[in-house]
Amino acid sequence: MTDLETRVKSISYKLISEGVDIYKNNQLDELTLVKHACSSCKKAWYMNLTECFFCGCINSYLYYCFKCKVYSSTTGGKSQCGTCEEPRKKICFNEKCVSNNSNYQKELNRPKNGLMDRGSPSSVSQTHCLSCGSEYNEYLTRAVKIVNINNTKDVKFENSFLFFDRIIFVKNDENKYLIIKNKMEIKASNKFENKINLNKIF
After folding, report:
1. Over its length of 202 residues, how does the chain's per-residue pLDDT go in tens digits?
2. How much is the pTM?
3. Which of 6, 97, 123, 176 is surrounded by the fewest CB atoms within 10 Å?
């Protein structure tokens, strides 16, 4: 595996961990990046994140036993309470939510495995931004070129770079990155960073 292949794979893994989808063509050093984000603040938008239909509370991934009145993690846990053996439910964590009103709680949590269960009709995908509260989201797309260099003086803007939204220069044998979007930003060629700054891509 060449240095460039290693770099591209490392950058790809990092971006995927940040919620970015990656599409490749036949060129090793060219990537198309897609990020589902809030239209206002550009923070990540998670379609696999569920929230309560009634109050918007984010899924806490907790079981609740109505008899023992205790919460427990759904991770590796059984749907039966370990103390009383009664079925546990994934309820809304917000105590002020109408779904936790004593008159409706059991009825609203009866379907599936509780109101916050993925298959419940009262559990919906993310409807507002976790950072700013906006209800609007969009897909951001960037065409990216990755350039492996030996040292800072090798940072040059070629005419072929005009076809890309961002250029990522990577120093050979170092985990340092310079992300630029146009020729004018070459002047900041000494401002390499120790990590991929997603804000400079999107």
Report:
1. 577 888 899 899 999 998 899 999 999 999 999 999 999 999 999 888 889 999 999 998 889 998 999 988 888 777 888 899 999 999 998 989 999 898 888 888 887 788 898 888 888 889 999 999 999 999 999 999 999 888 888 888 899 999 999 999 998 777 889 999 988 887 766 788 998 999 999 9
2. 0.75
3. 6
Residue 159 has which token pair? Answer: 């005419």
Place of tokens 């991770």: 75
How do the domains of the chain map onto residue ranges?
3-44+136-201, 50-125
Instruction: Give the integer Cα–Cα distance in Å for 117 and 110.
Output: 11
Cβ count near 100 (within 10 Å): 21
∠ CA 1-177-169 to the nearest 5 degrees? 70
CB atoms within 10 A of CB 105: 19
C-alpha distance from residue 185 to each of 155, 168, 169, 189 (Å):
11, 12, 12, 7
**CATH number attached to the domain at 3-44+136-201:** 3.40.1350
Tokens of 172: 């050979």
